[in-house]
Amino acid sequence: MIFTTEELWYLADTLVSSGCQVVDRFPQMILIGFAEAVITVQSFTECFENCLNSRQLYAMNCTSVMFFYEENVHNCILNSENRRTQKKLFVEENKDIVDYFEMNCSLTNQNKEVKYEQPLKS
């Protein structure tokens, strides 16, 4: 998956607003067994926002997220664990096009909701 310049700027702004210092991306990798929310979104950026706002939206702390690019429903999975806490369950995915992202956000900023007036156009 190649991100547009607009998407990269959007992600950078989102991270700064939410207190995340780093987000690690792992193409074609998934975490098995720790889905706290499985939702349908229109875009990767909407999935990413749901993870960042997971405390307000789903009463859970999203530490990693998986987005399935070719699925129209249930394409965004928010996890309560990550590859560091569950190493043996972090595995390669060869059937679907998916990206796994791991959040490294400060706990003090995770309660802050991230909102945007205009979402990116796909």
From TrEMBL:
According to the record, the segments passing through the membrane are none
InterPro entries linked: Celegans_DevNeuronal_Protein (IPR052774), Pan_app (IPR003609)
Residue limits of the Apple domain?
Answer: 20-105
Q: Which PROSITE patterns match?
A: PAN
Q: Which GO terms describe its biological process?
A: anatomical structure morphogenesis
Official protein name in the record: Apple domain-containing protein
